[in-house]
Amino acid sequence: MTAAQADLQIDRPAVADGAALWRIARDSKALDLNSSYSYLLWCRDFAGTSAVARDERGEPVGFVTGYVRPERPHTLLVWQVAVDDAHRGRGIAAALLDGLVARAGGEYGITSVETTITPGNTASERLFVSFAERHGAALEREVLFPTSVFPDGPHDPEVLYRIGPLSL
Predict the structure, then answer these.
(1) Going residue by residue through the chain (168 aa), what tens digit of pLDDT does each one get?
(2) How many other CB atoms are there within 10 angstroms of residue 146's CB atom?
């Protein structure tokens, strides 16, 4: 853990964090921004499978949202990962992901992780490749949603990353 990570608290998000998570996602310029309402719901309904990093004042500076796949109850689907611009490059995203998966492994029996990444999102690619390496897990990739299925205009394909089984 780096000194920057030692100053952080990683825990479950609360509804009161929803607005901050929405702002962090909006300001990332890399994520598909969902409605502010969806971040509030996410913090209420999926807090157990999500995590927030807080600075020394308790303010959210990063988050990871996820859910347990109904058809694969030992798989955590990571929906979004974002870190406030002022706090990037300190390993916070990796600490969030590791912390969440450790907690979800204990609480939900998670043994694998899935996420989707658009081609060219090298930060996310590095994050999940290094996660797989740290946990001694295989990583498979395949296109989950090709460009042609998106109804709202041009969208890059979403490539599914499957990581597991994990050694937690």
Answers:
(1) 554 556 789 999 999 999 999 999 999 988 888 999 999 999 999 999 999 999 999 999 999 999 999 999 999 999 999 999 999 999 999 999 999 999 999 999 999 999 999 999 999 999 999 999 999 999 999 999 999 999 987 889 999 999 999 976
(2) 12
Judge contact between 112 and 74, C-beta under 8 A: yes
Cα–Cα distance, 75 to 98 (Å, whole number): 15
CA-based nearest residue to 2, from 62, 81, 85, 89: 89
Strands 60-69 and 72-83: antiparallel
Give the span between the Cα atoms of 4 and 45, in whole angstroms: 29
Which DSSP category does 137 fall into? -
Q: Whole-model pTM?
A: 0.92
CA distance 130 to 136: 10
DSSP assignments along 103-136, one per residue: HHHHHH---EEEEEE-TT-HHHHHHHHHHHHHTT
CA-wise closest residue to 166 among 134, 144, 143, 140? 134
